[in-house]
Here is the input.
Amino acid sequence: MIDVQTGLLPRFFEAVTRRAFGDLSIDDTPALGYLADLLTRFVRSEALRAIRELPGRRLDSVTDSLLAIQDVWATDSPDFNPGAERALRRQIGDYTLFMTGIFRDHVDRLAVTGYYEQEGRRAYRFVAEMARARSEAEAPLYRRLSDRFEMYAGALTYARKVYFRADAVPPAAWPADPLVRTLFAE
Here is the structure.
Protein backbone atom coordinates (compact mmCIF):
# COMPACT_ATOMS: atom_id res chain seq x y z
CA MET A 1 0.00 0.00 0.00
CA ILE A 2 1.25 3.50 -0.81
CA ASP A 3 1.95 5.28 2.47
CA VAL A 4 2.23 9.04 2.96
CA GLN A 5 4.52 8.52 5.95
CA THR A 6 7.19 6.55 4.09
CA GLY A 7 7.62 9.19 1.45
CA LEU A 8 6.46 6.93 -1.37
CA LEU A 9 3.36 8.97 -2.08
CA PRO A 10 5.16 12.33 -2.24
CA ARG A 11 7.75 10.78 -4.57
CA PHE A 12 5.00 9.26 -6.71
CA PHE A 13 3.20 12.61 -7.04
CA GLU A 14 6.46 14.40 -7.81
CA ALA A 15 7.30 11.88 -10.54
CA VAL A 16 3.82 12.10 -12.06
CA THR A 17 3.84 15.90 -11.95
CA ARG A 18 7.33 16.00 -13.46
CA ARG A 19 6.23 13.72 -16.31
CA ALA A 20 3.09 15.77 -16.95
CA PHE A 21 5.10 19.02 -16.97
CA GLY A 22 7.59 17.42 -19.37
CA ASP A 23 4.85 16.14 -21.67
CA LEU A 24 3.24 19.59 -21.71
CA SER A 25 6.57 21.49 -22.01
CA ILE A 26 6.00 23.37 -18.76
CA ASP A 27 9.34 24.49 -17.32
CA ASP A 28 8.64 25.64 -13.76
CA THR A 29 10.41 23.64 -11.06
CA PRO A 30 8.96 25.59 -8.10
CA ALA A 31 5.40 25.11 -9.41
CA LEU A 32 6.12 21.43 -10.07
CA GLY A 33 7.16 21.00 -6.43
CA TYR A 34 4.16 22.97 -5.20
CA LEU A 35 1.69 20.89 -7.21
CA ALA A 36 3.29 17.62 -6.09
CA ASP A 37 3.03 18.82 -2.49
CA LEU A 38 -0.56 19.93 -3.10
CA LEU A 39 -1.47 16.43 -4.30
CA THR A 40 0.22 14.90 -1.27
CA ARG A 41 -1.60 17.24 1.13
CA PHE A 42 -4.98 16.69 -0.51
CA VAL A 43 -4.62 12.92 -0.74
CA ARG A 44 -6.50 12.69 2.56
CA SER A 45 -10.16 13.43 1.91
CA GLU A 46 -10.39 15.47 5.13
CA ALA A 47 -8.09 18.06 3.55
CA LEU A 48 -10.70 18.63 0.86
CA ARG A 49 -13.56 19.09 3.26
CA ALA A 50 -12.32 21.28 6.05
CA ILE A 51 -10.38 24.40 6.68
CA ARG A 52 -9.64 24.44 10.37
CA GLU A 53 -8.16 27.91 10.72
CA LEU A 54 -10.98 29.17 12.90
CA PRO A 55 -11.45 27.56 16.32
CA GLY A 56 -14.37 25.17 16.42
CA ARG A 57 -15.53 26.04 12.93
CA ARG A 58 -15.48 23.83 9.87
CA LEU A 59 -15.61 25.44 6.44
CA ASP A 60 -16.87 23.13 3.73
CA SER A 61 -16.97 25.28 0.61
CA VAL A 62 -15.27 28.12 -1.19
CA THR A 63 -18.20 30.35 -0.24
CA ASP A 64 -17.87 29.39 3.45
CA SER A 65 -14.19 30.27 3.26
CA LEU A 66 -14.88 33.65 1.66
CA LEU A 67 -17.44 34.42 4.36
CA ALA A 68 -14.93 33.39 7.03
CA ILE A 69 -12.52 35.98 5.64
CA GLN A 70 -15.11 38.63 6.44
CA ASP A 71 -15.36 37.25 9.99
CA VAL A 72 -11.62 37.42 10.62
CA TRP A 73 -11.78 41.15 9.90
CA ALA A 74 -14.91 41.91 11.96
CA THR A 75 -13.62 43.53 15.15
CA ASP A 76 -16.73 42.48 17.06
CA SER A 77 -16.37 38.83 15.98
CA PRO A 78 -14.88 36.15 18.22
CA ASP A 79 -12.98 35.04 15.10
CA PHE A 80 -11.22 38.43 14.68
CA ASN A 81 -7.76 37.54 13.39
CA PRO A 82 -6.67 39.41 10.24
CA GLY A 83 -3.58 37.21 10.04
CA ALA A 84 -5.78 34.20 9.29
CA GLU A 85 -6.82 35.67 5.94
CA ARG A 86 -3.63 34.57 4.22
CA ALA A 87 -4.08 30.96 5.33
CA LEU A 88 -7.72 31.02 4.26
CA ARG A 89 -6.85 32.51 0.87
CA ARG A 90 -4.10 29.94 0.28
CA GLN A 91 -6.54 27.16 1.15
CA ILE A 92 -9.05 28.59 -1.32
CA GLY A 93 -6.38 28.69 -4.02
CA ASP A 94 -5.21 25.16 -3.25
CA TYR A 95 -8.72 23.73 -3.07
CA THR A 96 -9.89 25.34 -6.30
CA LEU A 97 -6.69 24.33 -8.13
CA PHE A 98 -6.97 20.75 -6.90
CA MET A 99 -10.65 20.46 -7.76
CA THR A 100 -10.42 22.09 -11.21
CA GLY A 101 -7.35 20.01 -11.99
CA ILE A 102 -8.07 16.59 -10.53
CA PHE A 103 -11.87 16.54 -10.51
CA ARG A 104 -12.49 18.76 -13.54
CA ASP A 105 -15.50 16.76 -14.76
CA HIS A 106 -17.19 17.13 -11.37
CA VAL A 107 -16.49 20.87 -11.24
CA ASP A 108 -17.82 21.22 -14.80
CA ARG A 109 -21.00 19.30 -13.87
CA LEU A 110 -21.55 21.67 -10.95
CA ALA A 111 -21.12 24.60 -13.38
CA VAL A 112 -18.59 26.28 -11.07
CA THR A 113 -15.48 26.04 -13.23
CA GLY A 114 -15.29 29.76 -14.02
CA TYR A 115 -16.05 30.66 -10.42
CA TYR A 116 -13.36 28.30 -9.08
CA GLU A 117 -10.80 29.62 -11.57
CA GLN A 118 -11.62 33.23 -10.69
CA GLU A 119 -11.49 32.65 -6.93
CA GLY A 120 -8.35 30.52 -7.23
CA ARG A 121 -6.54 33.21 -9.21
CA ARG A 122 -7.75 35.89 -6.78
CA ALA A 123 -6.68 33.85 -3.74
CA TYR A 124 -3.17 33.15 -5.04
CA ARG A 125 -2.79 36.80 -6.09
CA PHE A 126 -3.58 37.87 -2.52
CA VAL A 127 -1.08 35.37 -1.08
CA ALA A 128 1.54 36.55 -3.60
CA GLU A 129 1.05 40.19 -2.62
CA MET A 130 1.27 39.35 1.09
CA ALA A 131 4.45 37.34 0.46
CA ARG A 132 5.91 40.14 -1.66
CA ALA A 133 5.17 42.72 1.04
CA ARG A 134 7.11 40.54 3.48
CA SER A 135 9.94 39.93 0.97
CA GLU A 136 9.29 36.18 1.06
CA ALA A 137 10.95 34.00 -1.55
CA GLU A 138 7.64 32.29 -2.47
CA ALA A 139 6.03 35.51 -3.77
CA PRO A 140 6.87 34.84 -7.46
CA LEU A 141 5.56 31.27 -7.18
CA TYR A 142 2.18 32.39 -5.86
CA ARG A 143 2.03 35.07 -8.54
CA ARG A 144 2.60 32.42 -11.24
CA LEU A 145 -0.04 30.18 -9.63
CA SER A 146 -2.43 33.11 -9.99
CA ASP A 147 -1.39 34.17 -13.50
CA ARG A 148 -1.21 30.62 -14.87
CA PHE A 149 -3.98 29.02 -12.82
CA GLU A 150 -5.70 27.40 -15.80
CA MET A 151 -2.42 26.02 -17.15
CA TYR A 152 -1.54 24.36 -13.84
CA ALA A 153 -5.09 23.03 -13.45
CA GLY A 154 -4.77 21.64 -16.98
CA ALA A 155 -1.48 19.96 -16.05
CA LEU A 156 -3.20 18.28 -13.10
CA THR A 157 -6.08 17.18 -15.34
CA TYR A 158 -3.58 15.76 -17.82
CA ALA A 159 -1.64 13.97 -15.06
CA ARG A 160 -4.81 12.39 -13.76
CA LYS A 161 -5.98 11.20 -17.17
CA VAL A 162 -2.60 9.89 -18.29
CA TYR A 163 -0.86 8.73 -15.10
CA PHE A 164 -3.57 8.08 -12.49
CA ARG A 165 -4.90 5.00 -14.22
CA ALA A 166 -5.84 1.74 -12.60
CA ASP A 167 -3.24 -0.06 -14.71
CA ALA A 168 -0.50 2.37 -13.57
CA VAL A 169 -0.62 1.23 -9.94
CA PRO A 170 -1.88 -2.19 -8.81
CA PRO A 171 -5.08 -1.95 -6.67
CA ALA A 172 -3.31 -3.62 -3.73
CA ALA A 173 -0.99 -0.61 -3.57
CA TRP A 174 -3.77 1.97 -3.54
CA PRO A 175 -4.08 3.87 -0.26
CA ALA A 176 -7.14 3.03 1.83
CA ASP A 177 -8.49 6.58 1.63
CA PRO A 178 -11.62 6.67 -0.56
CA LEU A 179 -10.49 9.83 -2.35
CA VAL A 180 -7.24 8.24 -3.51
CA ARG A 181 -9.03 5.07 -4.54
CA THR A 182 -11.31 7.28 -6.66
CA LEU A 183 -8.30 8.84 -8.38
CA PHE A 184 -7.13 5.48 -9.66
CA ALA A 185 -10.47 3.75 -10.16
CA GLU A 186 -11.97 6.10 -12.75
Notes: Confidence is low (pLDDT under 50) at residues 50-59. The chain is about 65% helix and 0% strand.
